[in-house]
């Protein structure tokens, strides 16, 4: 069985959605994120926008092979907000995504069951408004070679339709390429067999 080398994520942040339950308002935000720094930036932005709200609950997951996730109830009863939000990220099968649900209390207590349902529904509606895309898991390599070997390198890159991330072309050249994980071994061997080219994983 081939190892899975694709993952699902969102391509951009949609407009926030609003869900109402017994006078409480829940605003659902979704952001594509790659790391905790991006999570914090988006959280700060939403908190600024809704500075008078009562709770800013969120959940995120990043990574494709090493998964990092967090769910935060932000003052709501334990596991009544963050985990129902995170459950929707899992239900949609996504990664590299952050969901923030902002709650304005409407004066009527919802109880733990009501909160779980409200946060889950808001997260579900917010994700439902996203465009979900599939991406490939890629390995990155650095190619080092003399300028005279440029044609050999470029021919393989072109034939194999490899993506160049960065290049420095002088007397000695360096090119960073991105290779789909399932093709990585084949591409690595191809360059390794080519005289005068050094390849190493980034």
TrEMBL record:
Domain spans labelled Impact N-terminal: 22-127
InterPro entries: Impact, Impact_N, Impact_N_sf, Ribosomal_Su5_D2-typ_SF
Organism the protein comes from: Hyunsoonleella rubra
Short name of one Pfam family: Impact_N
Family named by the database record: Belongs to the IMPACT family.
Official protein name in the record: IMPACT family protein
């Amino acid at each position: 069985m081939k190892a899975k080398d694709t993952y699902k994520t969102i391509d951009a942040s949609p407009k926030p959605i609003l869900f109402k339950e017994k006078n409480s308002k829940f605003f659902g935000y979704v952001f594509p994120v790659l790391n905790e720094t991006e999570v914090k930036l988006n959280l700060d932005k939403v908190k600024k926008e809704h500075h008078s709200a009562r709770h800013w609950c969120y959940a995120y997951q990043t990574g494709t092979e090493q998964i990092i996730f967090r769910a935060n109830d932000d003052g709501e009863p334990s596991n009544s907000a963050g985990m129902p939000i995170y459950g929707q990220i899992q239900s949609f099968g996504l990664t590299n995504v952050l969901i923030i649900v902002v709650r304005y209390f409407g004066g009527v207590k919802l109880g733990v069951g009501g909160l779980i349902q409200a946060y889950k529904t808001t997260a579900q509606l917010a994700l439902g408004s996203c465009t979900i895309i599939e991406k490939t898991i890629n390995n990155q390599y650095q190619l080092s070679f003399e300028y005279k070997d440029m044609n050999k390198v470029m021919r393989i890159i072109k034939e194999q339709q490899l993506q160049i991330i960065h290049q420095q072309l002088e007397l000695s050249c360096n090119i960073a390429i991105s290779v789909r994980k399932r093709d990585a071994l084949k591409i690595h061997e191809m360059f390794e067999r080519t005289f005068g080219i050094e390849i190493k994983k980034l």
